[in-house]
Amino acid sequence: MAGDTRMNFFEEQDRARRNTWRLLGLLTLTVVVLVSVTSAALIYILGGDLGADHAIVGKVGAVVVGVVVLGWAYKTIQLRTGGHAVAQRLGGRLIDLDPSAERERTLLAVVEEMAIASGMPVPSVYVLDDDAINAFAAGYSPNDAVLGVTRGALDYLSREELQGVIAHEFSHIFHGDMRLNMRLVSALHGILLPGLIGRFLASSGEHASHAIARRRNLNDSPVVFVILLGVCLMVLGYAGTVCGRLIKAAINRQREYLADASAVRYTRNLDGLLGALKRISGFSGSVLRARRAAEYSHLYFSQGVPMAFGGWLDTHPAIEQRIRRLQPAWNGSLDGYRQGHGMLMGGALVEGFTGIARSLSHIGEPEAPELADAQATLAALPADLARAAHQTSGALALLYGLMLGADNATRERRSAWLGDRLEPEVRQWLSILERSFGNLDPRARLPLLELSFPALRRLSAARHRQLAADMRGLMANEGRVQLLEWTLLRIVERNLVRRRKLPQTLRALTDFETEIATLLAAVARAGSMGPVDQAAAFVEGWAMLPFGECRLDDVPPDILKRMDHAMRRLERLKPLQKPRLLKALARCIEHDGQVNVAEGELFRAVANILDCPMPPLLDTASGR
């Protein structure tokens, strides 16, 4: 299959996982060094001997490590809602799903185009009330990602410049940087917490000074020990701050260069990202005024917090260096970028044509043809369906409508089963959308689902669980599970319904032979081929995997329970092992020499479940 050299997405995912261990190692080394220095200083102040008083080192170490872990855990709990927590703590405002302001509508359109082009749910979008030009992506996975954009970016960037900034942030989502950055926030809070506690302990000494004065041997006073411990913890906290910023700089700078390069590749428009960087340098700047801006400094598109020491602690490369990486012949001129001009429409996209091979090779790396296809898809959506996707009740009706089926008999049967389970507003929307569902292009089903997620996320957790239960009920009521409907259910559950996480230990393909056989058999049986061709397609896909002989008849028919178990287990597959599985599935689908809409939609849905956002399959016959 062509395009193997472009499987960078999986390498970047693996790199992000290894960087998590690197982060843990750096933090552990930082804590050990700080504990050692603080303990030695404390022993010296108390007049002890370093060799004889090694017990103090253990006690201080235990206290510091305990405080660091406590701070880490506290911040992790505080950020449990993912990117929403970050945006809210920075003072962000969740923009309306159908905003009246033209600039916010343009922002949503750019975000929706990029999400649909890459095959991932549309993230929620916040606007920060700040004149600086900046943006960020926050969250633990593409399913809970949030984008934040400053008012300055909306006011001063053209559409193509804004598109370059958004593409840069999507790169951080695709390549695992966003998750690593969230973990870094929690870990560094743990290092800073000893300094805050130390400040409290040191200040408490003022209230106990009269007790200290009555003692002849100050070294025997527990109050003196507490005060000195507080001072040492304060020093540790300040040193930890410097070390934390060095860790941010070490991990983050190179990732910014790579995100810039990815943004240009996604949009195939160098001028867009270059214009945004030059406008930051020449006019507005990127330093944020938010009170908690420093806590999240490594998340931003550009340097959001000024640093001392001549830029050694900067979390981002200098703007001029980033510009020269993209435009080596740049002479330093900022003519035309020293004032804002408001949002403009622009940024032509080139057209391109290909099929499943291209989409597979562009996982996590959409380019201009995918963006052009996404724009065409959004423009072709029936107006009432697009409007429904931006309303909470309408988005629910949209999802129920997709589950009711295509033929009239199935829709009537499933509608009767739903009965009074739906709220009146949802039933009303279903009635309005009925005709549009009948004329809906099958290729628009996944884009509509992705488009509706920002509205669906605004519903309560209980309503999310009810939605998933209703979807399961609709499938169970038919007696036979359609794999496409099951994939819609799994995408909804993965994005909306919280569930107990499996252990995080990642495993190789060889540990999932039964699960992969179940999945491959389901894909083979889902096509329009006859039994003989289905069996041959299964064998052809299976031959690409590191297992012994297996036939389609050896795998029991796919049922909901077996598929649920298989996919939940396969979520633990190592990143670099996923391309081989996806290629085997693609080979199975392509056995008859064609990929119909249902097969392509199913393939993309399975890739989404495996955390591999896959761009749409561009149709060479139709020019899309």
UniProtKB/TrEMBL annotation:
InterPro entries reported for this sequence: HtpX_protease (IPR050083), Peptidase_M48 (IPR001915)
Please list the cofactors this protein needs.
Answer: Zn(2+)
Task: Output one GO BP term.
Answer: proteolysis
Superkingdom of origin: Bacteria
Record's keyword annotation contains Ion transport: no
Q: Which residues cross the membrane?
A: 21-44, 56-74, 222-247
PANTHER family recorded for this chain?
A: PROTEASE HTPX, PROTEASE HTPX HOMOLOG
Which protein is depicted? Zn-dependent protease
Source species, please? Pseudomonas matsuisoli
